[in-house]
Amino acid sequence: MSTDTVIRTDGLVKDYGRGGTAVRALDRVDLEVQRGEVFGFLGPNGAGKSTLIRILLDLLRPSEGRAEVFGVAPRAGGPSLRARIGYLPGELAMSARTTAQDLLEHYARLRGGAGADRIAPLAERFGLDPTRPVRTLSKGNKQKVGVIQAFMHRPELLVLDEPTSGLDPLLQREFLTLVEEARDDGATVFMSSHVLSEVEQVAERVAIIRQGRIVDLDDVATLRHHAGQHVELTFDTAVDPAAVAALPGVEDVEVEGTTLRCLLRGEPDALLKHAATHRVVRWHAQDRELEDLFLDHYRVPAEELHTEDEGAADGH
Fold it and tell me: Tens digit of pLDDT for each residue in 170-180?
């Protein structure tokens, strides 16, 4: 494993249950996350995101395959490995009678005092009253406590599971700024979410997971390119939609009178050359959002997903 590789999984499998009742939460997941990058891990609830995170933190053990963090298996890393990680779980179980301040100071003591000096400025930044008992806090304020404890000791690796859940839009933006600052300080960020828009703002690379399998993995710009464009062409006379549908990269052709609409993935050269054989009176193209690509993967029937080429399914 390269010294620049912070997270690595090879053929990672996690089954819940045994025999015929077993449910496969992760299905041969291969990932590498490099030092200093923000890596987005996307999928809806139940796709396998939290299961992978719990394996990386040694909260679960894999059924097959291997996971490494900073070059060691999570189980072997022990407390010294955990001290290098800041973790924000997807569901915060906070019912302590102590105040938020006391709880955060407790986390600092567990880390040898690291981060104690950042409690106050981070609490002020996120508008948290640290004197209030944790059990009286709203979901959003508990999430603020979770964010502060994850970031306050300046960890080398941040593992964030649905990190903006419960935060209002202004604080979501503040959180993303905090992620950017951590990255600029050299931290690696592994950020799991089902909200593509926020991940897209800060991530260099994104993996999309469906039913425990990686169905796409690339840098954000390339994934946007895969998402394609909505193209609308209006001609002076009707054109043959079948001829357009046969062009490379063209999908979902629809014709209404002399107007043709389609989805274009990749270069527009073939479509433009074909259109030029007719008289075009209007042309419009609109980039699709990364969200659209995400939805594309979730529209594919599961049986088709599992018959795809293994290399393509794993994003290589």
Answer: 999 999 999 99
Per-residue confidence at 93, pLDDT binned at 50, 70, 90? confident
**CA nearest 205: which of 30, 41, 48, 4?**
41
**DSSP secondary-structure letter at 48?**
S
Are the CB atoms for 91 and 59 separated by under 8 Å?
no
pTM: 0.78
- In this structure, the number of other CB atoms found within 10 A of the CB of residue 93 comes to 7
- The amino acid occupying position 208 is I
Q: What are phi and psi of 94, to 5 degrees?
A: -120, 110
Which parts of 115-189 fold into alpha helices (H)? 119-125, 139-151, 169-184
Gap between the Cα atoms of 187 and 179, Å rounded: 9
CA distance 244 to 275: 9
In single-letter form, the type of residue at position 227 comes to A
CA distance 221 to 189: 19
**CB 143 within 8 Å of CB 166:** yes
Strands 157-161 and 85-88: parallel
The residue among 6, 84, 16 whose CA lies nearest residue 50 is 16
Give the tokens for residue 286: 């609109």
**Exposure string (b/e) for 74-88, b if CB count within 10 Å is 16 or more?**
beebeeebbbbbbbb
Domains, the chain, ordered by start: 5-217 (3.40.50.300), 229-287 (3.30.70.2470)
Q: Do residues 189 and 34 make contact, with C-beta atoms less than 8 angstroms apart? A: no
Residue with tokens 């996971």: 67
For residue 185, count other CB atoms closer than 10 A to its CB.
10
